[in-house]
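Re: your question from the hallway

Yes, I did run it. Sequences:
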Amino acid sequence: MFDDRSPIYRQIAERIKADVLSGALEADEQVMSTNQYAAFYRINPATAAKAFQQLVDEKVLYKKRGIGMFVSTEAREMLRVQGRETFFGEVVDPMVAEAKAIGIPLTDVIRRIELLENGDI
Amino acid sequence: MRVDVTGLTVRYGDVTAVDDMSFSLESDKIYGLLGRNGSGKTSLMSVLAGYRKPSGGTVLVGGEPVFENRRATAGISLVRHVADAADKSDKISEALTYAAWWRDSWDARYADELLELFKLSRDEKIGALSLGQRSAFGVTIGLASRAPLTMLDESHLGMDTPTRYKFYDALLQDFMRNPRTFILSTHLIEELAALLEEVVIIDGGKLVLHEETDSLRSRGIEVTGVADDVDGFVAGLTVLSEKTLGRTKSAMVYGSLDDEQLAAARRAGLELGPIALQDLFVHLTEPVGETR
Amino acid sequence: MRIMTSLSRTLLPFLVLVWAGALVVVLALTFVVSVWKGVSISGWNIAAAQISRWVLFWVGVYLISNFLSIAVAHGRTRREFLWQAAAFALLISVVLAAVTRFGFLVESLVYRGMDWSTGDAGGGILEYSLVYAVWSAVGAFMAASFIRFSSAALVTIPIGVVLIVPAGSLVSGANSLPFLGSLPGFTHGQAMLLTLGTVVVALGLAWAVAREMPIRTKAG
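Structure:
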C-alpha cells in the first residue's frame, strides 16, 4: 500500500498519475470519491482529499459539482510532456551510472534497448 | 469538538505525569496521541475527559472547562484500555444498558452492529473476555457513544490483525458518516499512522511536537556518507541519532532542508534518504545519548 | 433524575425480591426450629435488625464503587450522580422499611395461627428508614474513602462506627451484635433526631470525599 517515508497524499497523487499515463484511467472517466478512496486504502479522508485537490490544481482532474471528480481530457498528454522533461534526468542518467558502476559496457545497454524496440525479447 | 489545553499539569503525589503542557486541537479530525508507556498519555486523556481534576492549568473542550461540567462532559467519551464503563462482573448487555441510560447520544443500534462485527455475545461477562475482546468492547462503547470528542486509549491492545483492521475500518466509516474529533493513543504508530490527520507526540509529560502526519513524514532525513563529511553537514541541525560503520556514518536529522543545504549535500557526495515515521517517533522520544 | 430513576428501576425490584426471599427463608427456618423447641422470638426481627443493615451498607458501597465511575464514563458529573444516588438511597430506605414492616405483619399472622409468641417485634417504618439510610450513607462514605485514599481510609472505620451507634438504639434486636445497645440518657425522640443527624453527616462525608474523586483505571 503506502509507505511511511513520504507524505501519503503525494503517493496517492503519483499513483493516480501513473494510472492516467498507463491508460488505466481514461479521459473524462470518474475517479473514486475521497471517502471511497479513504475507506478502500484505509487512510484518513483528509489525506485523500489533499491528494485530489493537488491533482485538481495541477489540472489532472476536474470537479463536477455534486457529482465527483473526473480525469481531464488533456491530463494524459500533459503528464507525458512532463514525463519526457524528467525522463533522462530521473531514469536514463541513473541507469547509465549504475551500468558503469557494475561494469556493463554501454554498447550492451544499447543493444538491449534495440532488441526490446524490435520486439525480439 | 475543539480542545484547548493550557499549562496543564497532572501530579500524583511527588510524581509529575503531565508537565506544563499546552496545545490546541480543532474539531472533526482524527488525532494520534503518541508516546511511550508512561509518557503521560493516559493522564492527559483522563483530564480531558473529566476523570480527574488537573493539578494546574486549564483544559477546555468546546470552550468549556471540563471537570464537573456537564455541558462539556456530555460530549466527551474516553475508553481506556480496560473499559471504565462497566464492572468486570457485568454482562455486556448490562454495560450497554448503563450506556443507554446515561449517554444521551448513545446509538444502541450501532452498538449492536459493532458487537456483531467483533463477534461479541451480549450474555458474556466483561471479566470473562480476552484482552482483545475487551478492547473490541471498549471500541464498541466508544464509537456507539457518538460523542463529539471520542478518545480511545490503546484500543487495539490484544486485538489480532483481522480484528484491528475491522476496528480501523469501522472507525473510518463512522468518522466519515458522523464527523467528530477522535484522539487515538498508541505507542505503535506503524499501522495507525495512515488514519491520523495530525499527531501529538508527548514524552516525559511534555509536548514534543504537534504536526500534520503527512508533513511529519517528510520531516526526517537520513544523511549517509563519509564520517567527517556527515559531521560537517549536520553541524547546527537537529540530530536525532547517529550510527557509524567503519568510515561510513549515518545521521538522522529532524527538520526540512532548504535548496542550499540540498546542494551542499550533493557536492559533498552525501546520500539523503527518508526516515520511516516509526523510527522518527522512536528517536524523537529518546534524546541522543540517553538510553531508557 | 435520569440516574435516580434508572438506579431505582433495577435495584429497587431486586432488593424488594431479596426482602421477600428473606421473609420466606426466615419463616421456613422458624418452622424448622419449632420442631425442637417452642418459638418465643421473632425470626424476622433478627433478619430485619441485623442482616438488612448490612445489605443497605452494601448498597452504599456498590453505588460508589460500581456506578459512580460508570456514570462519569458516560459523561455524567459526580455532583449529578451523588445527589441522585443519595435520593435513591433515601427512597430505598423508606421502601425497604415499609417492606420490613410488612414482613412483621405477615409473621404475626403466621405466629397467631401457630399460637407462637413473637416477643419483641421490631420498630416502625420511620425507625427502619433512618437505620437503613444511615447504613447506606456510611457504606457510600467508606467506599469512597477506600477508593480515594486506599489503606489510609482505615481511619474512617471508627468514624463509621460512631455514625451508626444512634441508629442501633432505634430498633429492638439491634442492640446485641455487632455494636452498642440503647443510648443512655436519650429519649426515643432525641435518638431519632440524633440518627437523622448522622444520616446528614454521613451523606455530607460521602459527598466531601467523592466530590472530586479521580476515576482510576480498573486493574486487569
